[in-house]
Amino acid sequence: MVPATAPDALVLAIDAGNSKTDVALVGADGSVLGTARGGGFRPPAVGIAAAVDALERTVRRAARAAGLGSGALPYAVQVAACLANADLPVEERQLREALHGRGWGGTTEVVNDTFAVLRSGVDEPRGVAVVCGTGINCVGLLPDGRTARFAALGRLSGDWGGGAELAEEALWCAARAADGRGGPTALATALPAHFGLPDMGALIEALHLGRVPRARRREIPPLLFATAAAGDPAARALVRRQAEEIVALAVVALSRLGLLGEEVPVVLGGSVLAARHPLLLDRITAALAARAPRAVPRVVTEPPVLGAALLGLDRMGAGPEAAARLRAHFAPADAPADGTGDDLGDDLADAPADGRVDDLTDGPADGPGDGNAAGRPLLR
């Protein structure tokens, strides 16, 4: 229900990941009225009430930036929230009720944060996105609201990949190479050397006893990609498998939505993909060309909060001029003219050569999730 006295902001856009939250208040013409950034959104760790309390502090700062007092509710006509840990229908419902109860908007919609990545990378609500950060997830969307989605709860739901999984696999290969159960790999020397330790036995002990904190495992995927780029067969096999998993998700989502034979963007996001490792991206491009020849893979460059805001504008029937104004606000300085990311058919010569991964904390340890099957409308 739209409030009787409509606020200046049409959409309160929220992109809440595990490590950070971005909030933007957006006018009906697509202008950005106020923004704020806060910490991660982790209901499984702290509970829904505490997580939403923390989110509210960020929302209030965005409201103040837009010239609104903390009591000037509602802040917007609609809340469009793309949230990490909204993995199952019941979780979406619980979080929608919790957010709507704060009175931030006349209506409130909650979806998984992977949809924000997708919408930020396409110029209409049509396409597929695969996010590979700490974990892995994929969604698809059509203009009529139909979606393709995966449970994305880690191995429990059949997933493989993401930075956390790659780190575990690299350690597994290195450990077996070191003790003789597995084939040789340069990872067996590269990993302990990175942590200043003499061998894999010492690294295993240090990880087990906590002398090397678990959080430092995020440093392993860059070493894996660098080792693969140097030609190590075991490391290359892991990169190849990651590419195959990404393509499998994209192809299934395209098929569910009837897009397999159409020209359609496949948006690639998350820290592993954003690092633009040539070996990984080349493999993805080749595999997609074989299985979905008309798909156009793109590495997204815009922040996901843009996607959350665009979803809100879609729902409210805003026109293309509003979307263009909003996109222009968030466009990186070196973004392509259409603002939808870099096609992977472009030259990849400027990709990082060191296998760098920026941040492996953007998703839950078992992968960003979303538990709905295909067919349920995204924003009703």
Q: What proportion of the residues is helical, as a percent range?
A: 25-40%
In this structure, how is the largest beta sheet organized? 6 strands, mixed
Binned strand content: 15-25%
Mean pLDDT: 88
Distance between the termini: 13 Å
Total number of strands: 11
So how many helices?
13
Q: What order do the SSEs take from the amino end to the carboxyl end, as H and E? A: EEEHHEHEHEEEHHHHHEHHEHHE
Q: Which radius of gyration do the C-alpha atoms yield? A: 21 Å
Low-confidence stretches: 1-6, 346-380
| Shape assignment | globular
- What is the structural class? alpha/beta
Order of the strands making up the biggest sheet = 8-7-6-9-10-11
From the structure above, extract its key features.
380 residues, alpha/beta, six-stranded mixed beta sheet, 13 helices, globular, disordered C terminus
